[in-house]
Amino acid sequence: MQTFVRIVEANSYTKAAETLDLPRAALTATIKKLEAFLGTQLLQRTTRRLSLTPDGAVYFRQCLEILQAVEQAEGAFRGQAAGQPRGKLRVELPGTFGRLALMPHMGEFCRAYPEIELVVSLSERVRDLTEEGADCALRIGALQDSAMIGRQLGSMGFVTCASPAYLAAHGTPQVWSEIREHRGILHFSGLTGRPYDWDFMVDGSVVTTEVRSVISVNDAEASVSCALQGLGLAQTARYQVRPHLRSGALVEVLADTLPTPMPISLLYPQGRMSSPRLRVFADWLGALLRDDPDLQEKL
Question: What is the pTM of this model?
Answer without folding.
Answer: 0.75
